[in-house]
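This follows on from our talk about sequence and fold. Go ahead and set the record down below:
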Amino acid sequence: MRIMLNGRASEIDADTDKPLLWILRDDLRLVGTKYGCGQALCGACTIHIDGQPARACQTRIADVAGRNVVTIEGVSGRVAEVVQATWAKLDVPQCGYCQSGQVMAAISLLSSNRKPTDQDVDDAMSGNICRCNTYQRIRAAIHEAAKLLGA
């Protein structure tokens, strides 16, 4: 089956029911997308499918045939650059395990809403769990990124 992965056409030979997370991590060695819970509850495996955040652990490879999939390794553009730079500037990560999913969710939010309120941030990030409890730094980084993006 063929998917667009990080801007390039990719042929995937796998069982159609296999979760995309394991295709990315095991077959393609794109390990930035993390396994957290396997039930789409924690957000560690957040990717973008056709520009929208999705959980790779519960997305079958068959579900993305012919679609555009972007992982943390493939994010690009002004919003992605600003979010990643702000994350580093404000020292958001502690252990870092959840951060690829957090960054992917933040990029999605700021791509559609350049002036998010605290409630907008909470709503967009609600499915992303940070066991180190860096939520205040995450919110601050999103607001700082919004300012830098000209909100």
